[in-house]
Amino acid sequence: MYYGTIIQTVIMESISTAPLWGTWKLVSCRLRTISNEGVESFHVGPFGSDPLGRITMTPDGYFSVLSTSTEATSQGHISNWSTGLAEDIATVARPMVTYCGPFSAWKEGQDSILGIDVEVALNPTLIGVTMKRIWTIQQENNRILLALKGKEQHTMPNGVTGQLELLWEKIL
Predict the structure, then answer these.
(1) DSSP assignment of 112-154, as one string?
(2) Which end of the chain is more exposed for a tag (fewer CB within 10 A), N or C?
(3) How far apart are the C-alpha atoms of 43 and 27, rounded to whole Å?
(4) Nearest Cα to Cα of residue 136 among 124, 150, 122, 147
(5) What is the per-residue burial (b if ≥16 Cβ within 10 Å, else e) of 62-95?
(6) What SS3 state is found at 172?
């Protein structure tokens, strides 16, 4: 009998990033949850019901994202960002997600994975982390749509935890 350690190998097949190149506009963001009974439900995501965001992915393999909520951008009473009150700045900055770095794509089983090696981020805990997203591209009514699903769980401020699903429309 063998009592050694079992090592699971994940075969990662590199795939072309060409379908991802361009600039994408955030169309929707929702949180998918599954109850203990197996019931799937969707909740408004962290960027609210009318999210604002852009992703740019370049042919030389660089990724940049900026996302926020329109509710945060309506906080127009900050006349000077560098001298504004900390609580006013936090109201605007807390819902914002922004990071950049080199990216690559590969297959893990049936899933296409997008990996971003974060170099710079508003949230410093992301720096040095590889963000991984499951991605698919579809065409719908003359629009090219990119669906990104988080591989890790996301917890909303209200404590609800699930998988983020973001839908982006190619604009450039």
Answers:
(1) EEEEEE-SEESSGGGTT-EEEEEEEEEEETTEEEEEEEESS-E
(2) N
(3) 15
(4) 147
(5) ebbbbbbbebbeeeeeeeeeeebeeeeeebbbeb
(6) coil
Structure tokens at 131: 């963000």
How would you class 57 by CB atoms within 10 Å of its CB: exposed for 0-12, middle for 13-18, buried for 19 or more? buried
Closest CA to 152 of 130, 168, 137: 130
Sign, CA dihedral 23-26-27-29, equals positive
Q: pLDDT in tens for each of the 172 residues of the chain?
A: 445 555 444 556 889 999 999 999 999 988 887 777 777 777 676 667 789 999 999 999 999 999 988 776 666 667 777 887 888 777 777 778 899 999 999 999 999 999 999 999 999 999 999 999 999 999 999 999 999 998 877 666 667 678 889 999 999 9
What 3-state DSSP class applies to 25?
A: strand
Q: Is the overall model pTM greater than 0.85, yes or no?
A: no
For 123, the token pair is 């949230």
Q: Which helix (H) or strand (E) holds 86?
A: helix 86-93
Among all chains, which residue has been given the structure tokens 């297959």? 107
